[in-house]
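step=encode ok
step=design start
structure_in=
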């Protein structure tokens, strides 16, 4: 979602004849697009703002947009008095007001609706991967999660607007469409004629678009993985055989305290349905270790579910208390040393599963999407249908979608060569 927001902000400024620069000291406006999902991310924001105010030109405008802006609000101006703007994730389309009156201070952290999608200009050229937001916010209110505070409750974009964005992306160069949402598979929209639409309908509409070769979506909530969506993995070959469906914990007790009201058997049943629909599908997850009250036995259940499902790529974190969340004031907070020990153990298991899957891909041929050159310029970086990074030797006129034979693998990435 932040990548999409950054692209749209850049397009808005480009429409006002501004160009991007990587040099902070040369910039006329500096925008830090932020995430508040973990405390460490918020801390990094204010550290970065401190560095920016020392490096920027005296008259350069700078500020923050996104979830940390919503979290910090007016207090951000107290911490960094030189800030010019603090705009929440549904307010960054207000930036032109600052450009028209650069001597003002701009604060807008209201939880609006879908106005930003209507007011922001479209990009004239789409990147190969077009991120298409279909809803914002979340109604699940997990006790650890700040999203309902920073992004608000769930709101789905009109079906016709999303399809229009997909068509525009396809017409301007998109090869892959990635549908986005804090609860992406909870998408529900009913038009004025009473027609109801879900995520499966958006996939069905995007699949025939010329030039679109791959479709995916993130991030999913288990109880929203409905049968019509599962069936799309069976019927639509452009839908990648890869799904991020966070479980967070393998302990029923911890899931209850997290306010994630699904039984483990339900989660496992969904995985079984997905694998029957698409036998080659692979799953990734998110994990939180050291949640308040998590016992050694609870953590071992997380280890067991990780090994049972065999997640090929996962994001695992120590529990981080966030403001405006119920878990932050729960008793039985876990010591940092215990969190660190559990995280290291889980990461070791997940890394081994990922390494085994990567090595199982050796000698396979896959259609992969090019992301561009690596830092050296001697190689190209491709993404497999399972979102693995695959490195190949640079070649003139390398295609955006290439058939690649996997020749080597490690935990983090693959190596490959062009076929034919």
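sequence_out=
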């Amino acid at each position: 979602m932040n990548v999409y927001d950054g692209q749209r902000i850049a397009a808005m400024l480009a429409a006002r004849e501004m160009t991007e620069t990587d040099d902070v000291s040369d910039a006329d406006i500096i925008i830090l697009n932020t995430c508040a999902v973990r405390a460490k991310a918020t801390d990094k924001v204010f550290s970065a703002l401190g560095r920016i105010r020392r490096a920027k030109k005296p008259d350069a405008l700078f500020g923050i947009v996104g979830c940390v802006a919503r979290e910090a609000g007016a207090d951000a101006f107290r911490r960094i008095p030189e800030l010019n703007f603090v705009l929440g994730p549904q307010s960054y389309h207000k930036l032109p007001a600052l450009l028209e009156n650069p001597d003002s201070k701009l604060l807008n952290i209201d939880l609006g609706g879908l106005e930003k999608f209507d007011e922001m200009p479209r990009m004239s050229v789409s990147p190969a991967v077009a991120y298409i937001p279909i809803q914002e916010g979340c109604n699940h209110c997990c006790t650890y999660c700040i999203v309902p505070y920073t992004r608000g409750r769930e709101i789905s974009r009109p079906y016709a607007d999303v399809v229009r964005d997909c068509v525009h992306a396809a017409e301007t160069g998109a090869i892959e469409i990635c549908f986005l949402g804090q609860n992406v598979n909870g998408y529900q929209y009913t038009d004025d004629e009473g027609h109801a639409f879900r995520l499966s309908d958006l996939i069905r509409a995007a699949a025939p678009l010329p030039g679109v070769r791959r479709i995916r979506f993130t991030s999913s909530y288990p109880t929203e993985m409905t049968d019509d969506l599962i069936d799309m993995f069976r019927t639509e070959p452009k839908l990648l055989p890869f799904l991020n469906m966070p479980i967070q914990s393998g302990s029923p007790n911890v899931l209850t305290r997290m306010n994630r009201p699904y039984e483990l058997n339900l989660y496992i049943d969904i995985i079984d349905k997905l694998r029957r629909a698409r036998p080659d599908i692979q799953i990734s997850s998110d994990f939180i270790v050291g949640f308040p009250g998590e016992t050694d036995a609870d953590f071992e259940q997380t280890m067991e579910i990780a090994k049972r499902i065999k997640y090929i790529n996962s994001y695992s974190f120590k529990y981080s208390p966030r403001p405006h969340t119920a878990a932050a004031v729960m008793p039985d907070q876990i010591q940092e040393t215990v969190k660190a020990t559990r995280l290291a153990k889980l990461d070791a298991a997940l890394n081994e599963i990922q390494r085994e899957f990567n090595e199982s891909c050796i000698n396979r041929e896959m259609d992969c999407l090019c992301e561009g050159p690596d830092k050296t310029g001697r190689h190209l970086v491709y993404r497999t249908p399972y979102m693995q990074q695959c490195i190949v030797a640079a070649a003139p006129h390398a295609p955006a979608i290439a058939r690649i034979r996997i020749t080597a693998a490690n935990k983090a990435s693959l190596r490959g060569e062009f076929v034919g």
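step=design ok
step=annotate ok -> Residues 115-360 form a domain with the pyruvate-formate lyase- activating enzyme fold (CATH 3.80.30.20).
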